[in-house]
Amino acid sequence: MRLVLLGPPGAGKGTQAEKLARHYGVPHVATGDMLRDEVAKGTELGKRAAEYMHQGVLVPDELVREIVRNRLSQPECSRGFVLDGYPRNVKQARMLEEDLCRQGLTLNAVVFLSVPTEVLVSRSSGRVVCSACGANYNVVTRPPRESGKCDRCGGRLIHRQDDQEDTVRKRLEVYQQESLPVRDFYAARGLLRTVDGDQPVEEVFRSILEAVGGGDG
Ligand code: AMP
User: Fold this and answer.
1) Mean per-residue pLDDT for 72-89?
2) What is the pLDDT of residue 215?
3) Ligand 1 neighbours (beta carbon < 6 A)
4) What is the model's pLDDT at position 168?
5) Residue 14 structural domain
6) What is the rounded CA–CA span in Å between residue 86 and residue 117?
7) Is the separation of the CB atoms in 67 and 38 below 8 Å?
8) What is d(CA 160, CA 165) in angstroms, rounded to the nearest whole number?
């Protein structure tokens, strides 16, 4: 199964991508996580990416293409993947198409999670992530069992620097300009499935499975 999850920041892509990856037995490939990892490790790529990420704007396309291409060519992705956070603009969508085509592959479906803007701002502002394993929580809608501590690994939960309210609004603005056209790109190819992301996590998950199985084309 080769899936792409689209949606604005805070739509729940990470949560759903993780569940879908487990369901289909394929890796969850999240460009945001991979970039944060590079930043944390202090690599050259990480240093270049950090200045863009802190401002809430997109990292240059070629830089992201490189890390995605490397990851998708690993043996663990031979059975498929769930892509989360890529492609973010039409240029990246074309790059992905080209890179997959070179391997004789195409996407099975692209799921768009639709969520109203006010919900997105409050979700992102409440979001905390595990500094050790990257698991996502929300202090309002999806709190950890013990405050500040990851349910899964016990790691420390932190508020991402780019989840501050003004950066969230900036990321939403960037999203409107650059990422919305990606939806049209996939609609034109008959791959787009739109799912209401403003429902409880399990409901959204069920709707995605249904949409990927059947589809609104
Ligand atoms: P995310 O965790 O997906 O919200 O990504 C966090 C930040 O990483 C974004 O605000 C961008 O600066 C950067 N980023 C993640 N994925 C991409 C991408 N596909 N293209 C460009 N920048 C990206």
Assistant:
1) 94
2) 42
3) 9, 31-32, 35, 52-53, 56, 58-59, 64, 85-86, 88, 92, 162, 171
4) 82
5) 2-115+179-212
6) 20
7) yes
8) 11
Whole-number pLDDT of residue 217:
40
Q: What number is the average pLDDT over the span 136-158?
A: 92
Is pLDDT above 60 for 126? yes
Is the predicted pLDDT of residue 117 greater than 90, yes or no? no
Number of domains in the chain: 1
Tokens 């739109």 sit at which residue?
194
Check if the beta carbon of residue 6 is closer than 8 Å to that of residue 179. Answer: yes
* Active-site residue, 149 included: no
pLDDT at position 90 over 50: yes
CATH of the domain at 28: 3.40.50.300
In the chain, what is the straight-line distance between the N-terminal and C-terminal CA atoms, in Å?
17
Q: Give the closest residue (by CA) to ligand 1 atom 8.
A: 32
Encoded tokens for 63: 């830089």
* 34 falls within a domain: yes
Ligand 1 atom with the shortest distance to the CA of 31:
16
In a domain, 120, yes or no: no
Is 160 annotated in the active site? yes
- Domain membership of residue 165 (yes or no) is no
Give the pair of three-digit tokens for residue 183: 């939806």
> Residue 149: helix, strand or coil by DSSP?
strand
| CA 72 to centroid of ligand 1, rounded, Å | 17
Two structure tokens written together for 135: 């698991």
CA neighbours closer than 13 Å in the CB half-sphere of residue 54:
7
